[in-house]
Amino acid sequence: MEFDYGAPAAIRAARDAIRAEAARWDDAGERMRAVRTATEGLGLSPFGFAVADVADTGQWRVYEEMRAHLGALCGDAAAEFHGIAAVLRVCADRYTAADRDAVTDLTAVWGD
Amino acid sequence: MTEPLRALEVGLAEVRAEWDRLLARVEAGIRLVERGRGWAGGIVEWVTGDVEDGLAVIRHRLGVLRLRLERVLDAAELATARAVPVLAVLDASLAWLPAVVTPVTGVAAALDPPGRNLAYWAGPAKEAYLDVLHEQTGALRQAAGQARVTSEWLADVAMANMAYLTGLADRVAAVAAALTTACLEGGATMAGVLTQFPSSLQDLADLVGTVVGELVSGAAHLAERLAADVASVRRLAGELADHSDLPGGRWPRSVTMNR
Questions:
Q1: pTM (predicted TM-score)
Q2: Rounded Cα distance, B162 and B207, in Å
Q3: Cβ count within 10 A of residue B24
Q4: B100, B115, B241 member nearest A20 (Cβ)
Q5: Could you tell me if B122 and A10 are in contact, meaning their C-beta atoms sit under 8 angstroms apart?
Q6: Chain mean position to CA B185
Q7: What is the mean pLDDT of chain B?
Q8: How many CB pairs under 8 A join A and B?
Q9: b vs e for B37-66, b when ≥16 Cβ sit within 10 Å of the residue's Cβ?
Q10: What is the ipTM of this complex?
Q11: Contact B86 A70 (CB under 8 A)
Q12: Which residues contact residue B44 at a Cβ distance below 8 angstroms, ignoring those fewer than 6 apart?
């Protein structure tokens, strides 16, 4: 026998599961924001890359670029994750027996 | 890294103390000869011209030794001053793991696989969500990989500096030992000063000259290692940024709502 996804109990379970999923993304967003903040404390002195008088090979600049890049990525990830959580809540709200079979515009929800 | 640093600081102090001691002995020897030179009949076996030549040789070799020692001391002082920021690089290498690598990997693991109860969700919206999930966790793994590369690179930088610092500490210790045991015999007589000092000073100048050469090639080797490391980290960063998980090095945008 096929599982009846449209049964009221199944719909309720699905909506709860989607909301739980949304909560995971919000939590992930907070964690990524904390990582972003942590990268701000990882700065280094430009003199820390050589104990001898050697030609500058751009070590410090490359490091600062990497740090800034990864910090920005984590910040973008945090924003994205909260956005995904919001979309999932919309999905949960819309997921009813009545319109389960209705075609929704996925692009409108998730974007292109 | 603190161990070679401590050895270096000890060696540096010894070199300075032994150099002062040696300088005092050579100057005393020179004064002895200068006093004797004015004293008629002071030395029968040395004619005045030879005495002048002998003193000139001693002064010249002392000057050469001083210049070479200054280069060793400069390298040691610079390394001592830079050791603290280099230690910070080692600390940062370790700090990247708990600050970035572990939490980002942990976030990916917390999201993927999704909750088991999601099995009750069916339909195209769920499929769209699973695509987003994989896109986002792929990006997380790439970001964690970049952070790991950064951490490993910093560790390589610290190791390369550590190798140089260890070599430098060994050589400074060797110079200190050579100055301590320098065979400035015959300092009690004019003849002794004029015959023994030049060869002792020449031996020291040769030894310190060799050390200077080794330090120059050690610094060049360090520079090469650092340049190779930064080149490889640049290349890796480029490869990671071009990866499809981070298109154009940017975080993938899965959502257009609520922006």
A1: 0.86
A2: 24
A3: 10
A4: B115
A5: no
A6: 37
A7: 89
A8: 210
A9: eeeeeebeebeeeebeebbebbeebbebbe
A10: 0.90
A11: no
A12: none
